[in-house]
Amino acid sequence: MGTWQLTGVFVLIGVVMIIGLAGWLVMNHSRERRRLIEERVLAMRQAVAAKVAAEKVAAEKVAAEKAAVARAAADRLAAKRASMEKAAMEKSAIERAAIEQAVAEWAVAEQAEAERANMRKTSTEQRDADAVEARMRAVEAAISEWIEAEREGHRQAAATPGQPAVKTCTRTGAIHQQVRSTAEVIEKETGELEFIKNRIEAGVDILPLEFQQTVDEWKEGRTLRHSSFDDLKLKFRYKAYSIEDGYELLHLYNQWLAQQRQKIRVFIRLLGATVDKGDSMLAAIEDLERIEREKYLEMDVDVIFTLRDIRDILEKLIGVENILRDLENVCRKRSEQIIAPVWEAKGSL
């Protein structure tokens, strides 16, 4: 082996040793640097953990303080709310007591007013009933006096045969004459009521103010005291009829209808049957007719005719009731037309 070859080997060995030393130094430096980095990272982690722990402790402390403040505020709010609720309950109790007292006083006053109204109504109804009964008794007494006068005249005519005979009337004939007179009055009133109903239905609904005042004063008894029901209707006839007139006449005719029914009961009582307000007058008439027909040859024909006329009067009164019902419907219909008139197209543009 030559010198150059040995030199090359030594150089190669030296280069390898230098490279190995450099590699070792690099590896050692890398390990040392890695160790330093790991220590630094560990220190940073410890610092971060300590900081997080400190922040957590501080946050817990702040949260505890906030919770304490919130609890104190909640306690104050609860105390305030309790005091307000207590005050509201006391105020509500006072108001409830005042309302109950007012309601009790109102109930007492209402009951007293109702009792006074009932007493007034009862006294008025009793007074009206007494007046109707007195009028019916007067009619019955007048018929009885008339019959007695006719009988007395008949006896005087029989006692003085030289004088001309005077036309007399039996008790049944007198009753029949009163029934026919009542039938004529009812026939006239039916025509008047039908006329009024047709006038209101035709749309003539303008009543002068002065005439309305006259009607009110007549109802209160301040004017036209001596005017009868016929006089009042005559005034109504020559004036324009309004809806108020219809309702007024509806009330008056209902009273008049009750009076006529009471008069028919008087006629039936005079013929031998008793009819109360709740009894059927037609049934009483049929019983009287049956009793009279059972007499055969002793049957009084005047009684049969009188009962027939009374039945006709009852039918006319039923017609009056129908007219009154139609009058009420007409007044209601006219009222609705005045309040909400029906629109009708009068043409196109």
TrEMBL record:
Keyword Transmembrane: yes
Bilayer-spanning residue ranges: 6-27
Keywords: Membrane, Transmembrane, Transmembrane helix
Protein name: Uncharacterized protein
Taxonomic path: Bacteria, Pseudomonadati, Pseudomonadota, Gammaproteobacteria, Candidatus Competibacteraceae
